[in-house]
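Morning!

This is the sequence you dropped in the shared folder:
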Amino acid sequence: MSTDQAVLVAGYLLDQFEQEIETTRAVLAALPAGKEDYSPDPRSTPALKLAWHIASADRWFLDSILAGKFEAGESGGIPEAIRTGADAAAWYAANLPASLAALRAAPAETFSRTLDFFGKMQARGVDFLALALKHSIHHRGQLSAYLRPMGGRVPGIYGPSGDQG
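The structure's back. Tokens below.
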């Protein structure tokens, strides 16, 4: 893929990511207060930890692509300020637009250069942008499946939800 092609595909993916922000924010915000430790199975990630993973990983992926390298994220767990789904949603809404804007302003080579992902895979920046979008949507789907059993309401994702009325 040429640099021009990578930039074209990246523009499309950035548009898609931007369109997903509000939906992701709504799913994070739908986590019922007081149910942050819920998980459907002992092997499943607890709801708030999953919500924070979605929010923080989206930003981490975008910022890592911009930086041209992937480094381990913060290992301290969930920040003290993130105690509810609403907190995670507010953090996400406040932080993701700037990361997307920075990538939109990045040099063309940002998307065509090859990046190393912890020695496990090498791919172009644009490929990691596609992976970031898939990763976000995958985990958002997980969290949305937690909501009803937690007593919450599932927001519309790609159309109305049975909980909207």
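Headline: The longest helix spans residues 3-29.

More detail when I'm at my desk.
O.
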